[in-house]
Amino acid sequence: MKIGLALSGGGAKGIAHAGLIKALNERKIQVDKVAGTSAGALIGALFAAGIEVEVIFDFFKSSNLFHPSKFAFGQPGFIKSNVFIEHISSYIPLDSFESLKIPLIVTATDLNNARLKVFDSGELYYPILASAAFPGVFTPVSIEDNTYIDGGVINNFPIDLLDDCDIKLGSYVNKVELVDKKMKHSYDVAGRAYSISQYHRDSSKFHVTDLLFEPDNLHNFGLFSFRSLRKIYDIGYENACKVLDSSNLLK
Predict the structure, then answer these.
(1) 53, 233 in Cβ contact below 8 A?
(2) Which residue would you say has higher pLDDT here, 201 or 136?
(3) Which residues contact 60 (CB under 8 A, 6 or more apart)?
(4) Exposed e or buried b for every residue in 43-77, given b needs 16+ CB within 10 A?
(5) Backbone angles phi, psi at 226, to 5 degrees
């Protein structure tokens, strides 16, 4: 029985995926293939490399995302994507998909051809960075003369890339909650509209999952809520335990 795990994008909220992985490990549930986008690509790569959950948490906590040395000046983004190569390589020493213990798929958006790009072989570091290059925040990533940004622009929830798996587990951290307050600023409305649009696209694939992990209470956190990583991680873990213990699918 081949088990596949899809990890959505979500910025800092992606650390909830690590909470799910902890719950899977505790129940000795073995994942045979991982597909990830953006933050899900980073988590997926670390997991596929055989790195322990607490070390995955440390990877995000120690990333020092907004240090001045990472700022990009005169470039199409606030933060230079390639400066994270050193950080990734200190956790995953081999720059190769083939070196991973679990097969991994990551998605990115090809800016030149306006298409989804799926990476699953060859060099590892740059495809991961490309998948997580949130437009306007991180600089685009060049790979073989093409320019890539966040895979979430086209496919934020890559459950559809696990067709060869018998059981598909989906971890989604961008659930849109109902709100009963008026929005005072234009960026609040724009951000809400983007979230709704993305959620409707992603949720159309929820029926493909055999088991869906979609934690509540993450709407209080943003893409860059890195000071709340432990809270987000705990929410992901608690939700995963609840879903796994109430299902007979993997028992």
Answers:
(1) no
(2) 201
(3) 12, 14, 15, 42, 226, 229
(4) bbbbbbbebebeebbebbeeeeeeeeebebeeeeb
(5) -75, -15
User: What is the length of the chain?
Assistant: 251
From the list 122, 123, 141, 142, the residue with the least C-alpha distance to 132 is: 141
For residue 13, give both structure tokens: 């909220």
The span from the CA of 97 to the CA of 107, in Å, is 13
> Do the Cβ atoms of 31 and 250 come closer than 8 Å?
no
Neighbours of 167 (CB within 10 A): 18
Which amino acid does the sequence have at 198?
Answer: Q
As beta bridge partners, residue 53 has none
- The chain-wide mean pLDDT, for the chain, equals 92
Contact 151, 116 (CB under 8 A): yes
CB-based contacts of 182, cutoff 8 Å, min separation 6: none
Average pLDDT score over residue span 146-151: 96
Q: What is the pLDDT of residues 80-101, one digit of tens each?
A: 888 899 999 999 999 999 999 9
Predicted confidence (pLDDT) at residue 53 exceeds the cutoff of 90: yes
d(CA 100, CA 197): 34
196 forms beta bridges with none
* Of 54, 38, 33, 46, the residue nearest 169 (C-alpha): 33
The two beta strands, 146-150 and 167-171, are: unpaired
Q: Among residues 110, 124, 154, 117, which one has the least CA distance to residue 46?
A: 124
Is the distance from CB of 12 to CB of 228 less than 8 angstroms?
yes
